[in-house]
Design a protein that fits this description.
By secondary structure, the chain is an alpha/beta fold. It contains two helices and 13 strands; from the N terminus they run βββββββββββββαα. It has helices at residues 120-129, 136-148, and strands at residues 18-21, 26-33, 36-39, 42-49, 52-55, 60-72, 75-77, 80-88, 93-95, 98-99, 103-105, 110-112, 115-116. Strands 1, 2, 3, 4, 5, 6, 7, 8, 9, 10, 11, 12 and 13 form a 13-stranded parallel sheet that branches. The longest helix is centred in the last third of the chain and has 13 residues, at 136-148.
Length: 150
């Protein structure tokens, strides 16, 4: 009755990888991770993961970040590319450019940079639409010149 409980057993290959760089860890270089990564220390260089990257409140990152999902409450100075989304939580500070299909920012977080969410598709469509648009300012100039002449 009490002694036997069923536990779901998973093989080692099915478990998700989780990497943790704690507070007080200083690292310089290029790091590649599998799965979920949490950084609470200092890192200068490049971080690459297809999974989720969590930047803790006390973390300081300087460099290039590529991830599937980035969730940050820390300080980042560098450019970010995320294939899924970027979330800035209070009190995050991000100085750099973001390229991601989804970007969200809590009140109290700070961001200085450019955010590219795939607007290049819209820009291409807009350029095609401009072919049939007349320059109204140039037209007004002609009308005014005609009105002034006696």
């Amino acid at each position: 009755m009490w002694g036997h409980s069923e536990k779901k057993q998973t093989s080692f290959g099915e478990e998700e990888n989780f990497t943790f760089l704690g507070r007080g860890v200083d690292f310089k270089g290029v790091v590649n991770f599998e799965g979920t990564v949490r950084i609470d220390g200092r890192l200068e260089g490049e971080i690459h993961t297809k999974g989720t990257l969590v930047i803790g409140e006390h973390a300081v990152i300087k460099g290039i970040i590529t991830a599937g999902t980035l969730i940050s409450g820390g300080k980042i100075r560098g450019n970010i590319t995320a294939t899924e989304k970027v979330q800035l939580l209070k009190p995050a500070i991000l100085v750099g450019d973001v390229r991601s299909p989804s970007f969200s920012m809590e009140e109290g977080a700070h961001f200085h940079g450019v955010c590219d969410m795939g607007d290049n598709i819209w820009v291409e469509q807009e350029r095609q639409d401009r072919e049939n648009v007349h320059d109204l300012a140039a037209h007004r100039g002609k009308v005014r010149a005609q009105d002034i002449q006696p």
